[in-house]
Amino acid sequence: MERKRILIAVNNPPELEKLRKFLATAGYEVKVADNGARALALSRDFRPHLIFSELNLSKIDGHHLLRELKSHSATKSIPFVLMSPHRSVNERVHSIELGIDDYVSVPFDIREVMNEIRQIIQKYMSLPSGAANVVSL
């Protein structure tokens, strides 16, 4: 069975090292990008099954990254989880309108995030069109 690939895009990779380790231990293949431009490039080469990105990325912010990914047929079906310390309703609604699959407030509970990631990947892999688009990048 193919290992599921997850791309984590954060400005300060050490802050999410614990999540990366949990994901790797759970059997996921994980890559970390330290800015939005690198995340965009990696999304095409690494072909992730899910992108977990912070909003305030350097070079390309999380919203811009999401818009770029959704505008290309090869990456538009990749589930996108946005994390941010912002908790305003307007920020969450704006992110949802752009097409995120989930919004995680920072700080977060690692068990909750792991569960969300599992559920999102299972949901997308069970959809005939989602599975085909994600796997055939």
Task: Give the termini separation.
Answer: 17 Å
For the sheet with most strands, the description reads: 5 strands, parallel
Sequence stretches where pLDDT stays below 50 over 5 or more residues: 130-137
**Which word captures the global form?**
globular
Q: What's the average pLDDT? A: 87
What proportion of the residues form beta strands (DSSP E)?
15-25%
Give the helix level as a range of percent.
40-55%
Radius of gyration: 14 Å
Look at the helices and sheets and give the structural class: alpha/beta
Q: Biggest sheet, strands in spatial order?
A: 2-1-3-4-5
Structural description of this entry:
Helix content is 47%, strand content 18%. It is α/β, with parallel strands linked by helices and 137 residues long. It has a five-stranded parallel sheet with strand order 2-1-3-4-5, sandwiched between helices. Helix 4 links the parallel strand 4 and strand 5 (102-105). Helix 2 (36-46) runs parallel beside helix 3 (62-70).
